[in-house]
Amino acid sequence: MSAWSALAWASRVLPSRIRARKRVGIGAPVGVALAILALSPAVAQHAAAPAHAATCANCHQRVADFYAHSPMRHAMADEGTNAVLEAHPNLSLQKNAYTYSVQTQNGKSIYTVSDVTGSMSLPIHWAIGDRSQTFVLEKDGHYYESLVSYYQRDVTLATTPGDEDIVPHSLIEAVGRELPLWEVRNCFTCHASGYHPDETLDGQKLTPGLNCERCHEGAVEHMADATRKDLTSLPDSLDEMNARETSNFCGKCHRTWDRVVREGWHGPPTVRFQPYRIANSRCFDAKDKRIGCLACHDPHQEANRSSAFYDSKCLACHSGANTARSSSASSTAMAEPPKICPVAKENCVTCHMPKVALAGGHAIYTDHEIRIVKPGDAYPN
Amino acid sequence: MLSQYTSKHFTIGGAYSRRRKLTLPALRLLLFVGAVLWLASLCMAQGAASQFDELARQAAAARDQQNIPLATELYGKALELNPNWAEGWWNLGLIDYTMNQYPQAIDAFNHLLKLDPHAVPALAIRGLSEFDAGDYVASLKDLELAMQHGAANDKDHEQILRYHLGLLLTRAGRYWDALSQYRSLAGERFESPDFEVAIGLVGMRVPSLPSELNAHDTELAGALGKAAHAFLVDDSDAADAQFNSLFARYPTSPNLHYFYGFLLFPHDRDMAVAQFQKEIAINPSNQLATGLLAFTLMYVGRYKDALPVAERALAAEPGMQIAQISLGRSLIETGDEEHGIEILNQVIERDPKNLEAHMGLAAAYSLDGRKEDALRERMVCLGLGK
Question: ipTM of the assembly?
Answer without folding.
Answer: 0.79
